[in-house]
Amino acid sequence: QVQLVESGGGLVQAGGSLRLSCAASGRIFRINDMGWYRQAPGKQRELVAAVTRGGSTNYADSVKGRFTISRDNAKSTVYLQMNSLKPEDTAVYYCNADIEISRVMQSRGYWGQGTQVAVSS
Q1: Taking a C-beta distance cutoff of 8 angstroms, is the pair 19, 92 a contact?
Q2: What residues contact 112, with CB distance under 8 A and at least 6 apart?
Q3: 54-69 pLDDT, tens per residue?
Q4: Which of 7, 10, 16, 71 has most Cβ atoms within 10 angstroms of its Cβ?
Q5: Model confidence pLDDT, tens digit, residues 66-102
Q6: What's the DSSP call for residue 17?
Q7: How many CB atoms lie within 10 A of CB 13?
C-alpha cells in the first residue's frame, strides 16, 4: 500500500509563513507529478501548486509569488512553503501524488489525509 502523510499545518497570523511537508511511503516504483490542493469550507477542492518529477512547477494565480513548491525525490517528499499568508488561504491542504507501484502497472493518484491551515486577520 501507498501512504501520503502530511505535516506542518497550523494557525498563523496574516502575513506569516508555514511550511507543509508530505512524505510518500510504501510500495513505490516511481513518483511522477506531485501537488498540493486545498479545500475551504463550502468550496470545491482546488489545485494550489504542482511539480513534475523533473522539477517544473505551476501555481494557482492566487498564490503566485507567495507560495513555493519543491520536492526531494530521494526522500519521496514534496514541500509547500507558504509566505505572506492571507485569511483567504485558510483551508484543509491535501497532498496528491501520481505513483507507479510497479514497472508494468499504470500509475494512479493518491491523496494524503489533509492538514488544516488557518490564517487569522
Answers
A1: no
A2: 4, 5, 6, 22, 94, 95, 96
A3: 999 999 999 999 999 9
A4: 71
A5: 999 999 999 999 999 999 999 999 999 999 999 999 9
A6: -
A7: 10
Distance CA 4, CA 41 (A): 22
- Grid coordinates representing 59 are 501555481
> Considering the chain, what is the average pLDDT of its residues?
97
Q: Distance between CA 119 and CA 121 in Å, rounded?
A: 7
Question: Phi and psi (nearest 5°) for 16?
Answer: -85, -175
Distances (CA, A) of 3 to 16, 23, 57, 100: 29, 8, 23, 13
Cell numbers standing for residue 43: 468550496
Three cell numbers, residue 15: 502575513
CA-closest candidate to residue 79, choices 30, 119, 112, 43: 112
List the beta strands (DSSP E) in the chain.
2-7, 10-13, 18-26, 30-39, 46-51, 57-59, 67-72, 77-82, 91-100, 108-111, 115-120
Of 119, 17, 21, 16, the residue nearest 76 (C-alpha): 21
